[in-house]
């Protein structure tokens, strides 16, 4: 999830409902490190900021690789989390406990390489904690920091989908106030994007350079903005539906061949007798 959702109450809600979470730490995120006092052997939690944690491991991080995603997991990091308890007088009070978290310092995340100037946050408490291009990822899965990093990396695909859905698939053009209509609108968008992904793969899998192939926007204009004509006729007593498309759709012939069914069945309501269905076999 985005760092804007970073809220301790929300974390508690997720974990109570058996959900895991991973996000970037903000500048004002308060973390703690558990240390053992030498003399008394007592546990003590020392506060530290995300930027302090990144600086501690930054040199080791840059030595690991000169390109690509690199990361270092820092053990023994905690967050203070609120919980509700009942005191001696029977009243509910809010207390805090230290909860272990996964703390992963990562650099060269794909989302940071592809951000433009309009996406960069201004300096402030809500901006992510960063030091020389490195960020701190935190998660409740302190037992699986590598898996937490791999899960967060997948988040960028979701962001790319929403960007293309808003710009090219009319994501925000649903004007209905019905929740069911909104769900149907989103499901159609997911279906359209899946078809586009398959078509894009079919057209671009044999390209030899970046100049060849098609972009996502060209696919939308070519696949969804084509002109077609639907005709119904009879052939030897069998009713047929014919669809004539313009030449623009020729580039998607492979996609149509893969997914267009040769035969399909339709259930049509018989108007003279409402209690009778008429089963018709049609050929595409």
TrEMBL record:
Domain of life: Bacteria
Organism of origin: Fodinisporobacter ferrooxydans
InterPro entries according to UniProt: RNaseH-like_sf (IPR012337), Transposase_11 (IPR002559)
Highest classification ranks of the organism: Bacteria, Bacillati, Bacillota, Bacilli, Bacillales
Span of domain Transposase IS4-like: 1-192
Record protein name field: Transposase
SUPFAM superfamilies: Ribonuclease H-like
